[in-house]
Amino acid sequence: MARCHPGAGIWGFAAVLVVLLCGPRDLRAQGSVEGPSVPVAAGPCFSCHGPFGRPETIDYPIIGGQSAAYLASALRAYRAGQRSGELAELMAPFAQPLDDRAIEDLAAFFSSLRSLR
User: Fold this and answer.
1) Which PROSITE patterns does this chain map to (predicted)?
2) 3-state class of 76 per DSSP?
3) Cα–Cα separations (whole angstroms), residue 8 to 19, 42, 55, 76, 80
4) Domain membership flag for residue 1
């Protein structure tokens, strides 16, 4: 099974700080994102997908700059158990507790990182 980097916790925390300090200034104009609450909620995502949704390893997909509709659809599929495979097993525990609003907010946030793609 794919695992996150052992030091991913500190890197996830560092990524949250970087996004809070250097990320898009007005996230509300780009979706239903509400200020810094989305980057904090996205902390677990940074652990594997890396800062700004760009992983440091090829084991995980780039989600920064990805289509918001695609990201939301993928998260809903992980939440509903409609995807299979190693990455689905890894993603399901993260997606299952998310409600539709959280999914839309995360999708809008990572999609807003388009300039970093």
Assistant:
1) CYTC (PS51007)
2) helix
3) 16, 13, 11, 24, 26
4) no
d(CA 60, CA 75): 14
Cα–Cα distance, 6 to 27 (Å, whole number):
31
Q: Are 45 and 106 in contact (CB under 8 A)?
A: yes
pLDDT at 96: 95
Number of structural domains, the chain?
Answer: 1
Task: Identify whether 2 is part of a domain.
Answer: no
- Average pLDDT (90-108) is 94
CB 103 within 8 A of CB 76: yes
Domain CATH code at residue 108: 1.10.760.10
Domain that holds residue 32: 8-116
**Cα(90)–Cα(92) distance, integer angstroms:** 6
Q: Is the pTM of this model over 0.85?
A: no
